[in-house]
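Dear colleagues,

For the upcoming journal club I promised to circulate an example of a predicted protein-ligand complex. I picked one with nicotinamide-adenine-dinucleotide because it came up in last month's discussion. The inputs are reproduced below in full, followed by the predicted structure.
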Amino acid sequence: MAIFDSAEFDEHEQALFVNDRSVGLRAIIAIHNTNLGPALGGCRMWPYASEAEAIRDVLRLSRGMTYKAAMVNVELGGGKSVIIADAHKDKSPELLHAMGRWIDSLGGRYITGEDIGTNPFDMAEIKKETKCVSCLREEDGGYGDPAPMTALGVLQAISAGVEKAFDTTSLEGMRVAVQGAGNVGHRLCGLLTDAGAKVTVCDVFEENLERTVKAYGTDTVAPDDIFSVDADVFAPCAMGAVIDDQTIPQLKTKVVAGAANNQLAEDRHGQMLADRGIVYLPDYVANGGGLISCAAEWYRHDKAQVEANVRKIRETCVEILSYADQHGLPSHEASDRIAEQRFGA
Ligand code: NAD
């Protein structure tokens, strides 16, 4: 299998393959770029069907972290780790401790955090073996759940998108369709309601939907109908790859901005949105508020400053949209170009 010359390997600096039989740990730690600082990215635990799938995932995700860190102005590079295991069956303190020791062996080049299949309690276990952990609970010395800051960042992206599409800085009276009322989506609905927007929300998990409706009096719609809501903004806050050939023709909104990672099923869908006059705020910028919080925790920057830095996501979005106009690019490509200039690709 070709690795160095594969598209996914891109310009990765380093990849560590861990095989620790004593605890049944098989993991990969990928470091894409450390020009701006140590590589920070979560630790995913997933029962990958094949090693190739795990390699592709970790490389793709660590590269994405470099771009995100560059765009939200934190002094960090991009990295990621995956543990090839089933979080429900295979997780043990011993396995997490072993992972911590391997992370520590990288001497501070990689900092981990929670991701799919891991949680803040797992991070506290890993921290017993290495200080290279962020996004911890306040009880464990961290700055707590990053979701509120992620939601605030998405609000900034929506605001920049609305200004571009409707020439107004106010969200008063705008209708926003929010897909997913989870950690981020629920909070986003609250922020939007406070800003005077009208919200239509959906979720496949009835309990989460009810919590949001009860808290903010939002309208609801069936999950399959969220794309065609007669709204001004669509905010994907559930899972990735929701912007595709089937969903784009259904969209009535002029703006797409949300928290979900990898919203475009394929890169060409960013161009499709642009061709339809839909303003798309790149996901990794819109959802960068959580990383700003984790970075502040890592550097022990003043927690009170985090919110002000998250609000700067709005300026960054304005810069991306203006660069896109100047260079005739779809916004996701404009964002990639700016990021590459910043981290010195
Ligand atoms: P979460 O798991 O708390 O919430 C996701 C919600 O989406 C859940 O309520 C789930 O039931 C719902 N959902 C799943 N499939 C759905 C569907 N088809 N239609 C409607 N609803 C559906 O996750 P979260 O922390 O709120 O994160 C949301 C997204 O943002 C994820 O893609 C995550 O990777 C991304 N993200 C989160 C953060 C953060 O700080 N939590 C940071 C960056 C990116």
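Two points we might discuss: Residues 146-147, 150, 179-185, 202-205, 208, 223, 237-239, 259-261, 287, 290 surround nicotinamide-adenine-dinucleotide (CB under 6 Å). The chain has two domains: 14-65+76-140, 147-287+315-343.

See you all on Thursday,
B. R.
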